């Protein structure tokens, strides 16, 4: 059995700084979403739909997995997005029982604005993140 690695003060400082950077980014993200009239979870859902990157459209079950939600919670989230005219439910070709999700043009515009701001925030955080990775030897 391998001996457990000793955790030193620098390790704790690195982890604390990383958690701080994450929280700063998430707080920024929540404020940016709110400014667009969205909750952070709604923004995450729109981003997941746009960035899913699979060969097939995203279904509610896929969204639930991607966001680590229970299926019924994902259904409620999608219901709110449909009501806000940000998402459409579509029936899959060849299987009318399978419902997939598509962003509306309104959602596309909001997501583009949010993503531009988020990428800029990440660029601004690049130095801090690089320093943290350097501490880890990466």
TrEMBL record:
InterPro entries: HTH_MarR-typ, MarR/SlyA-like, Tscrpt_reg_MarR-type_CS, WH-like_DNA-bd_sf, WH_DNA-bd_sf. SMART domains: HTH_MARR (SM00347). The keyword Transcription applies. GO terms for molecular function: DNA binding; DNA-binding transcription factor activity. Residues 8-138 form the HTH marR-type domain. GO terms for biological process: response to stress. Transmembrane segments: none annotated. Keywords: DNA-binding, Transcription, Transcription regulation. PANTHER family: HTH-TYPE TRANSCRIPTIONAL REPRESSOR YETL, TRANSCRIPTIONAL REGULATOR, MARR FAMILY. This is MarR family transcriptional regulator.
């Amino acid at each position: 059995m391998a001996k457990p690695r000793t955790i030193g003060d620098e390790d704790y400082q690195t982890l604390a700084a990383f958690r701080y950077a994450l929280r700063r980014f998430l707080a920024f993200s929540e404020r940016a979403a709110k400014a667009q009239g969205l909750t952070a979870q709604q923004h995450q859902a729109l981003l997941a739909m746009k960035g899913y990157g699979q060969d097939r459209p995203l279904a509610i079950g896929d969204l639930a997995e991607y966001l680590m939600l229970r299926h019924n919670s994902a259904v409620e989230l999608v219901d709110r997005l449909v009501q806000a005219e940000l998402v459409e439910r579509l029936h899959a070709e060849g299987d009318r029982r399978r419902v997939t999700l598509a962003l509306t043009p309104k959602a596309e515009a909001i997501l583009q604005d949010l993503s531009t701001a988020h990428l800029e925030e990440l660029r601004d955080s690049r130095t801090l993140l690089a320093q943290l990775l350097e501490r880890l030897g990466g």
